[in-house]
Amino acid sequence: MKPHIKEKLKDLRTSTHKVQLTTGRLKEVPNELKICTGIKYLDLFGNSIHEIPDWFFQFKKLEHLSLKNNSLKTLPIIIFTIENLKYLNLADNQINEINSHYFRNLMSIEKVDISYNQITSISAERITYPKCESLSIKGNKLQKFPTAVSDSHTLEKLDLSENKISLIEDDAFDQLENLIELDLSFNELTYLPTSIGKLKKLKRLNLSGNKISSLPKEFENLTSLEFLDFDSNPIGRVPVEISSQGVSGIINYYLSLGDNVQLFEAKLLIVGQGNVGKTYLMNRLIHNTIPDTHSTEGIEIKTWKIETPTSPDFRVNIWDFGGQEIYHSTHQFFLTNRSLYLLVWEARTDQHLISFDYWLNVIRLLSNNSPIIIVLNKIDERIINIDEKSLKTKFKNIVSFHQVSASTGQNIDLLTAKIGTEINSLPLIGDKLPKVWLEIRTILESLKSNYISADEYLNICNQHGLSNKRALFLSQYFHDLGVFLHFQEDNLLRNILFLKPEWATNAVYKILDSKDVISRNGEFDPNMLDSILDDFERDKRPYIVTLMKKFELCFEVEQNVYLIPELLKPEKLEFDWDYKDNLRFEYHYDFMPAGIMARFIVRTRNLIYDKTFWKNGVIIQRENTRALITTDQYSRKLFIWINGNNASFLLEIIRKELNDIHQSLNYSDVPEKIPCNCSECINSMSPHLFNYTFVKRVGTENIFKTIPCEISATGVNVHKLLGLYKIDSQEPDNNPMYSLDKILNDLIEVGSRILERKFQKKIEDLVNDDIVDLLRTKGHNISDQTRSGLSGSGKGAGELDIMIRMNNGIPITIIECFRLESCGSKNSVVAEHLTKLLSKYDTHELKRKFIVVFGEAERFDNLWTNYIQYIKDLNSNNDYGEKYPLSGFSVRDDLHSFANMKVGISRHDNNGESVEVVHVMLNMK
């Protein structure tokens, strides 16, 4: 017995409730424990105890018992006399047998861990009335799924990993309807029973390290699944483009696999300044010819078949990008993990170092470090030597340098061989794909059209045996692979499948390159598109504009008038700004990508103050606080000046938008700087700048409370400095932005803005997007979780689940939006949405949630009257259920004075607690 254990034993009293005697070299349970008759918690981990004494029965109040890592060889029967025991840990012992009677007693304890013992089998007798919620039999020697747990309907977590299980009975999961986590990893399973489809509440499933080669079709019934691990199974890995779709996409992939083929395909992106011979090079590689001289406008895509070590017919999709800087912001939408870059420059250019630095940084950001082959073209005219070693040291994704002449064909064969080697070694080459997927792709690629409607696409998939659900998973895969474009999350773009991505993007580039648009400093309207896009169908032009908005290239400044911020005048506008007593913040870029300010302007368009913005700057305002944000491409800096009472909160809004932009560019580590506030720096235009991350670290981890200023050489109080950048209160009750009443008032104001705009949307009613945008302009931290579906009429977009969170990510409330034409007693749409809002979407039991109804009835007053009655009759509505019974409903005409807006609040009981749902109905007819 170790000395510290002896000391603990001396301190024991009759009133002692918690005892920890861990790693004490105990060979038996100390007799000194006898006096602790009121003990509730006992931890004997890491000793050498081999039996439990008979006097253990007196621990009537014991709830938590750990005997982990001891020397028990048999199950200690005496513990079953302790009626209040809720947690039992017998892991890491030498128990080799558990008969049915004692297993029944084990399952009467809420949480049991008997992992890492020597258990070879458990009696086949089923346990009918267990209490167990969590059971771990991990790391034993079971050869079949223990039938005894099959009726354990209380089980929520079951861990059977690291056994030798090869057999699971067909009905093993029939009664495990409450199971949330199941771990069967590292067993000998070759199949799964169909009853696994009964686990409707299952969220986490680990099947890695087995011998499973196929899945039962019932697998698609696991609609709650959030995590699925299939690593190291014969069924094979999931293509990364599929895994990015989440669990449902992975399941769809495996269930579709069947007759499959391997995918040997990759993308080759040719980039560089204009007129360096990129198109020449592409044609020389593919056809061993050169084209007529022309400059690529936008993107040109070609298919090239080459022989590689793994395939004699490897498909290379070559994307020749135009050299214009404004195009670069769209590159990220066409990148995949199967991408290789060719950076082309010409031998006669003396500005090669500047060119290299710019393009290599662009590729580093946009491609997430895809491999790069640098090609020196036009060596028949002139050769320039470059410092290859230094470049490879700085940009480690450079794989080789080649000197060629696309015009004469010199050294093209060596470049081709290198491309074949590198492209063959890209990740995920050779993934298995369902054969029917490639058959559908072949049909789509054979179509002469540049696009087809989503309905046409679904019809083609239906003819090949794919349901609409599986077809949409497939189009998402095609989209992520860069073969076709289908933006399913956008209300308008989801209706079209771009078969030729270059058709859509080149239309965007035609607008960007238009002399008329450039002369108007980026402003355009639908009438201008008649001449700019004269060779594009009129009814498809709205899709092009929406695509530009998707790329964050433009926004709507007024009805049907759009603006491209990147084409604004670079000259700073004239305005008055008091720089004194501002909250200041800066970003210092090692490399400053093009378009950051343009994208920021698009994102904050509804906050712009008095139309004050130009190419390199903008002024935004929230309530009584204004911010001036500017960029300087030459110094590679972004400056933020904020004046007003809520400066720190507005700064958080600005930082969130900029950080989102940085994340999209794989540039998440941009240094943030804050100015010193010592007496010499506080009013200086050129103060000393501290690294914000470092200052925060000093403030939280370091005993020193000051940090030296390099200008004044005096110590600056860290907490006082950081206090300028903190929102006054992090508590939801004290922060007005976290107030549910504040959110209600803001939502009513947003509703009024929606009513003002409802006739402006000539193409399609995009009110969902407006709600998100307008709430963000009010300063709310919005998580937009758009779901696909149909309205009650079956005509329009279905629903929008918006979550408002605190800055630390904690949810405050949820807003559910949907359309409604009528609301009779047989209506099921309202009940379904209300049920999802109260239960499915809300994992935090939020006290107040919101529903926004877009009323589309001829008589709005009748719709509201019927809606009120419908809500009041919820308790007798079979579509609503019984979980959240209605306890009351009140109409709140006092909250506004708009005839086209109605507000009511329903109250629902939740196990004695009251939950409120605010119903806001807008007349959209």
UniProtKB/TrEMBL annotation:
Catalysed reactions, semicolon-separated: L-threonyl-[protein] + ATP = O-phospho-L-threonyl-[protein] + ADP + H(+); L-seryl-[protein] + ATP = O-phospho-L-seryl-[protein] + ADP + H(+)
- Which superkingdom is the protein from? Bacteria
Q: Ranges for the Roc domain? A: 259-426
Task: List the Pfam families hit by this protein, alphabetically.
Answer: COR-A, COR-B, LRR_6, LRR_8, Roc
In terms of SMART domains, this protein maps to: LRR_SD22 (SM00365), LRR_TYP (SM00369), RAB (SM00175), RAS (SM00173)
Q: Give the matching InterPro entries.
A: COR-A (IPR032171), COR-B (IPR057263), Leu-rich_rpt (IPR001611), Leu-rich_rpt_typical-subtyp (IPR003591), LRR_dom_sf (IPR032675), LRR_domain-containing (IPR050216), P-loop_NTPase (IPR027417), ROC (IPR020859)
- The portions of this protein that span the membrane are none
EC number in record: 2.7.11.1
Which keywords does this Swiss-Prot/TrEMBL entry list?
Answer: ATP-binding, GTP-binding, Kinase, Leucine-rich repeat, Nucleotide-binding, Repeat, Serine/threonine-protein kinase, Transferase
User: PANTHER family given for it?
Assistant: PTHR48051, RAS SUPPRESSOR PROTEIN 1 (PTHR48051:SF1)
What is this protein identified as?
non-specific serine/threonine protein kinase
Q: What organism is the protein native to?
A: Flavobacterium bernardetii
